[in-house]
Amino acid sequence: MAITLQQIADLAGVSRGTVDRALNNRGRIKPEVEQRIKKIAKDVGYKPSRAGRALAMAKKNIKIGVILQLAQTPFMKDVLIGLKAAKLEAESFGASVKIHKINGVNPTEVIQIMEKMKSEKFNGIALSPSQDNLLIKLIDKFSQEYNIPIITFNSDLENTARLCFIGQNAVKSGQTAAGLMGEITNGQGQIIIISGHEENPSLQQRADGFNREISISYPQINNLGIRYAYDDDWVAEKITDEILDKYPNLKGIYITGSGVLGVCKSLQKANKIKDIKIIANDFINDNIQLLSNGTINFLIGQDAYTQGYQSIMLLFYKLFDNKNPDSKFAYTDIVIKNRFNI
């Protein structure tokens, strides 16, 4: 039988209204009393009813907005699956969630959508940001002046007043890739990075972590730097064609984001699959197939579903229960796959 608020009130020696205020963080109660009530509720396994939560949510009229950049990329399509699952869950409690998709990187459009959400009285926003000074200032303004909490996911703008970041520790991911690259090339030869958009903070942090670890741990490797393919397979293919022509003895390529199909197509044309080691990111279908057939040596995963799902749900908890995330950084696991454990 479910525990009721009145039963908790009887155990705590307070009124039912006091229990309601304590469990819903509504104030007007002594801190020590609130703590005692919450401990009793936890000890007896109290769970608020779904109907009750939905009614309370309807009264609050909570609106959550999501802005998803690079929506056309395979990885972000997986993030969208998590977003849609969280949208269904939050809306089942009476909240409303609106997801805006942007193809490519367009901070101007992000800013326009944020301003529109403010005018439409959205209570919180989750977004995948890009490096842009105006966007940085606006995140701070929303968080501090408008009291509209912002959660970033997939990529982060760390030095802002955002509530928290959900995603991979990109620097450590890059360091992980460097360690793998150093081992499979025996710490020798020429390597290069192919990245997406220069404005994507996550991709830049991966490259920074990779470069730093290569220089420290594998000084005999000749790191040729970074090229940008803008998450476009055709551009990635043409860049790789040029690289192979200029550096015929290339030993490794680290792909920080999208463009994997283009790189691999170039290698196949040049008959270089067995000669050049490839480390890429994300467990999307095309990448898994290339890993399985030996074209890619390693894939590094970052849990797309969780990034999407948690970005909405943490806002939900904040707006409904006034519960802050446990940390400013909700890092997802860094998972390494090769063709034997995919």
Automatic annotation (TrEMBL):
PROSITE patterns: HTH_LACI_2. Its main location: other. InterPro entries: Bact_Solute-Bind_Prot2, HTH_LacI, Lambda_DNA-bd_dom_sf, Peripla_BP_I, SBP_2_dom. CDD domains: HTH_LacI (cd01392), PBP1_sugar_binding (cd06307). Transmembrane segments: none annotated. It comes from the Bacteria. Residues 3-57 form the HTH lacI-type domain. It is found in: Cell envelope. Pfam families: LacI, Peripla_BP_4. Belongs to the bacterial solute-binding protein 2 family. This is HTH lacI-type domain-containing protein. It comes from Megamonas funiformis YIT 11815. The lineage of its organism: Bacteria, Bacillati, Bacillota, Negativicutes, Selenomonadales.
